[in-house]
Amino acid sequence: FLENFDCDKAANGQFVPGRGTDPIYDEACDTINRIKEDLENYKQEMIQTLKPKHVASRSWKYINTKPESKDKYLIELPVTVEVPHDFHVKAKRGSGMKQVNKYRTEYVADLVRELEQALEVQQTRRAKGMQIVFAKFDAQRPLWASAAHISALLDALGSLAVMAGSPGYCRAEILDCPSDGSVKP
């Protein structure tokens, strides 16, 4: 069961299903990773087309990259960088030569929509992953019940053995208890 989730994160209240526990969760994680790679590749491709290239490569950054952020993955570039016509200004910060524009392109918008869907699936399946782990544990109920019963029996017999060796006590006599309920000495 320890392979089904990260014990350290679970101890802090953050259940994260382990790889292979829930294929739908795994697929959502793979999609999120692919989209992040696509965004980074897009950045590298676009930097090659922007002028001045050295300013673009040094200052291009995605903002609002956290899962709960609004307007995810806006492209932030100084106003001095010439951008293609498909870069739409969504916001501005600063003024004059220090102004920074926040852009969105259709390509990034499509990736962000796909990312948001994958993040939603990931979040809902995280809770489902916990149910899957509990179901796997419960499927072994007879084994766990037997282990608990045997442990209790060994504990009781061990306690009787310790007491039988103490001064003033005698060895307990263990009677056979058949399943029909009758006791034989």
Shape: rod-shaped
In total, the number of strands is 4
Instruction: List low-pLDDT spans.
Output: none
Question: Could you estimate the helical fraction of the residues in percent?
Answer: 40-55%
Distance between the termini: 44 Å
Series of secondary-structure elements, N-terminal to C-terminal: HHHEEEEHH
Count up the helices: 5
Provide tags for this entry.
52% helix, rod-shaped, alpha+beta, 185 residues
Give structural notes:
The chain has 185 residues and is α+β, with helices and mostly antiparallel strands. Helix content is 52%, strand content 10%. It has helices at 7-11, 23-49, 53-59, 106-139, 141-164; strands at 61-63, 74-78, 88-93, 100-104. A hairpin with a 6-residue loop joins strand 3 (88-93) and strand 4. Helix 2 packs antiparallel against helix 4 (106-139). It is rod-shaped and about 95 Å long. The mean pLDDT is 86.
Provide the fold topology.
Elements: H1 7-11, H2 23-49, H3 53-59, E1 61-63, E2 74-78, E3 88-93, E4 100-104, H4 106-139, H5 141-164
Q: What is the compact description of this entry?
A:
With 185 residues, this protein is an alpha+beta fold. It has helices at residues 7-11, 23-49, 53-59, 106-139, 141-164, and strands spanning 61-63, 74-78, 88-93, 100-104.
